[in-house]
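Good day; I would like, with your permission, to put a structural problem before you. I would ask you to consider whether the tokens describe a fold that such a sequence might reasonably adopt. The full record is reproduced below for your convenience:
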Amino acid sequence: MKKRKVELVVISDLHLGTYGCHATELLQYLSSIKPKILVLNGDIVDIWQFRKSYFPKSHLKVIKKFIDFASKGTEVYYITGNHDEMLRKFSDATVGNFSIVDKLVLELDDKKAWIFHGDVFDASVNHAKWIAKLGGIGYDYLILLNRFVNWCLKKLDREPYSFSKKIKASVKKAVKHISDFETTATDLAIENKYDYVICGHIHEPKIIRKENKNGATMYLNSGDWIENLTALEYNKKRWKMYRYAEDSLQAEEDYFEMENHLSQQLVASLIFSKQ
């Protein structure tokens, strides 16, 4: 397979170690690209719900792929999220091309990109963690049930259905949470004069220009590999949203044109040590 060269790839919310993770599809995508920089923007390994009885080979292969990237010259940044916050004790650790950080600022063609997971804006995570964890477990089983339903629908030649997307779309509180998240992130980015603010966490892929009375910035969210199967790609001075297509790797691409226009053991030791 011929690999596409990409300057920067950002993925988040893989939730490896849960039933909902589309590790096989993710591995196909990762095998199709050759990024100069790969940013893993939080909730990569779901340590909240980690079960030694459920971590299949496909999930291990994804971790190995990250190490393969680093060993072959790709700069790999693992930004910690709330589901893998245990790794924050290793923040700023670097081994070869593999680094663990809490946030990241990159220079992209004379523009600044501020990248972080986004859980710092989530009150349910910061002030009632046990509720958030309980909700995470429920979400995992909802996705598992949804997969079974979609398997049945496929057998009947019917379109797939997303329970969680339907819930998000119908619950005003969820819609408001997403809007507030975006506003908070962009207001801070504008205040600090960042050209791009890139988050994960809320599983809502998006590329949108945001403005307030103090200026403007570009808000980007890499989505997830539970439902949306999306990634952000930056190449030749433009962003696109990669969306995995089940029947092939010919992804649906959403473009935004800019104005002016390590070994498997290494990761295992970082994840499981000091638990």
Remarks:
- The chain has seven helices and 13 strands.
- The two ends are 39 Å apart (CA to CA).
